[in-house]
Amino acid sequence: MNQPLVSILMPFKNTVNFAAACLQSIVVQEYENWELLAVNDSATDGTEFVFQEYAARDARIRVIPNAGSGIIPALRTAYAKVRGEMVTRMDSDDLMTRDKIGILVSGLLHHGRGHVSLGLVHYFSELGISDGYARYEKWLNGLTVSGVNYSEIYKECVIPSPCWMVYRDDLQACGHFQPKRYPEDYDLAFRFYEYGFSCIPSSKVIHLWRDYQERTSRTSVHYAQNYFLGIKLHYFLKLDHKKLRPLAVWGAGNKGKNIAKTLMNLGITFYWLCDNPKKTGRQIYGQEMLDYTHLERLEHPQSIVTVANETSQKHIRTYLTGLSQIEMKDYYFFC
After folding, report:
1. 253 CB-near residues (< 8 Å, 6+ apart)
2. What is the rounded distance in angstroms from the CA atom of residue 32 to the CA atom of residue 28?
3. Angle at the Cα of 89 (from 210 to 142), degrees rounded to 5?
C-alpha cells in the first residue's frame, strides 16, 4: 500500500495522568509513516516531560510551544509545521486502536480528495459513562456507519474532533484553523459541509474517547450551549437560508429565545411558532407567539426547530412531512 506521510496534530495541556498511554497508542500504530506535532499549551503538571521523553526516543514526535494561548492557536501552531500529505487530529487524553491511522489513510487513498475519512468512536471512563455521552456515541456512530453525517449537522457536531483525516490541500482549501470560532471542531465540521467534502462510511471503532470531570469539553466556556447555537445559526444563514422564503422559528424555550433574539439583532424577519396554547398570542421580546398551524399560511417557508423534547420532535416531523416539506431543505432541527 502507498504510505503517504500523515501529520497528527495534538494540542496538549494538563493531561499528565493520560499522556503516556495516549502516546503509546500512537507509537505502536501498524501504520508507521506519521509525524506527531504536539503543541504545549502552557501545561503546568508535568505533561510536557512525558512528551519530551517520548520525543527523545522517537524522532517522529516533535514537541512545540504554543505560539499563542488556547486550542485554536495551538492547532494553528501545529498546522504551520505540517509536512504530511494527510492531516488528522488527536487528543492527549484519548487512545487509538492500533489500526486507526491505517484505516483512515486507506479510506482517503480509496476515495481520493474531497473526502473526510472517519471511524467509529467509543467513550470510556473509570467512573462510567453518562447517559448523555452514551446517546451521543450511538447517534454519532449511527451517522458515520452510513456516511450521512451532514444530515443532522444542525443538531450537534457530526464529525468526531479526534477521529477524522483529510488531505492537507483539502484542509487548506477550507481554511484549516484560521477562523477563531468555538467550538473549533464543530466549526470545522461545518466547513467540511460547506466545501462539499463527502464523509466516508466506517463500521469499525478506531478511537477511544476518554471522559472525566476535567475534560475540556466539560470545563471550557467555549463548549457552552450558546456557542453551539451561535455556530448553527451562523452557518444556517450563510449556507442554507433562502432570503426570499419566509422563516419560522419553532419553540419558546431558552434555545428558541436565543435564536429569536439573534435574528432580531440581525434585522431578520421571522415568524415565531409554538404548540403550547398557554403561550400562543403572548408577546416575547415584542413579537407575538403564533400557533404552529400558522405555518400553512406562509408561502414555501423554512423552519428552524429548537424544540428539544423527542416526542414533540416526532410530532413536528410528522406534521411537516404531511405538508410535503423536506428535512435539511425546508426545516432544520437545531437540537
Report:
1. 306, 307, 308
2. 8
3. 65
